[in-house]
Amino acid sequence: MEYLSVYIDPAAVMASATVLSKQQIFTALAENAAQSYGLDADLVLERLHDRETIGSTGFGGSVAIPHARIKQLDKCVGLFIRLAEPIGFDAHDGQDVDLIFGLLSPEQGSANHLKALAEVSRFLRDESVVTKLRGAASEDALYALLTGQQGQQAA
Question: 72 — phi, psi (to 5°)?
Answer without folding.
Answer: -70, -10
